[in-house]
Amino acid sequence: MTDTDADHVAATRTFYDTVAEDYAARFRDVHAAQPLDRALMAGFAELVGKDGRVADLGCGPGGVTAHLASLGLSVFGLDLSAAMLAIARREHPDLRFEHGSMLDLDLPDGSLAGVVSWYSTVHTPHDELPAVFAEFRRVLAPGGHLLLAFQVGDEPRHYERPFGHPVPVVFQRRRPERVAEVLEAAGFTVVLRSVRAADEGLGESSPQAALIARRPPQRPVQGLC
Asked: Which residues contact 210 (CB under 8 A, 6 or more apart)?
């Protein structure tokens, strides 16, 4: 990890440690009002199946982790923020949550059937995405699936006092076709690309994108004739 990477990770951790309780209260029931997002997660769950482990990377207060578990997945959450993890463990005591960075996952190669990155790359600079996606691919088993969600746009959005706290933060906006190119360069096959309109009632200011990508299965070794 370079010094620049370390600065970015530290700033993200500080932001979420500071706003954790406000963030959890604001987004606690958000999935109840988003049927299209729930449909994406349900489709992902069917693709992954119930036999393998799934990691919700950047799990925050654990709402997505809990929803995936309700779909029958064997899922655990991982996050940088100790404050977010404390909320996740408090509100979902039956689930497992771990501290860590998606840039350096403490997981064996090929150990997961699924990876979920639900808006967890929105603070990642674009030039760091290849390393993030390479790490996702490393921990996925051949044939495993990735669900990736993010906001659509061409310019980042800067907030000086999010939730009223003096912790400036930048949210990256990206074009789905560009993200798909980076995923494919990292060795994924993109199997679904979805964009829905912003829901102003939920405070969204830009369209919302989701991609499902697959680590290609291993090809059988051909025998000698």
From this structure: 37, 40, 147, 148, 149, 192, 194, 195
Q: Where do we find the tokens 């096959």?
A: 189
Using an 8 Å Cβ cutoff, are 115 and 147 in contact?
A: yes
Distance between CA atoms of 134 and 48, rounded to whole angstroms?
19
What pTM did the predictor assign? 0.91
Residue 61 half-sphere exposure toward CB, CA atoms < 13 A: 18
In which element (H, E) is residue 86 found? helix 82-91
Beta bridge partners of 145: 114, 214
HEC sequence for 59-70: CCCCHHHHHHHH
Whether residue 130 contacts residue 186, with contact meaning beta carbons closer than 8 Å, is answered with yes
Handedness of CA 112, 108, 65, 34 (dihedral sign): negative
Query: In the prediction, which pLDDT does 5 show?
Result: 46
Summarised one tens digit per residue, pLDDT across range 174-222 is 999 999 999 999 999 999 999 999 988 877 889 999 999 999 998 765 6
Secondary structure (3-state) at 197 = coil
Structure tokens at 98: 């771990």
75, 69 Cβ separation under 8 angstroms = yes
For the chain, give the number of residues.
Answer: 225
Order of strands, edge to edge, in the sheet holding 208-214?
Answer: 97-99, 74-79, 53-57, 112-118, 140-151, 208-214, 189-196
CA-only gyration radius of the chain, Å: 17
Identify whether the C-beta of residue 220 lies closer than 8 Å to the C-beta of residue 143. no
Residues 48, 51, 129, 167: what is their CA dihedral angle, to the nearest 10 degrees? 100
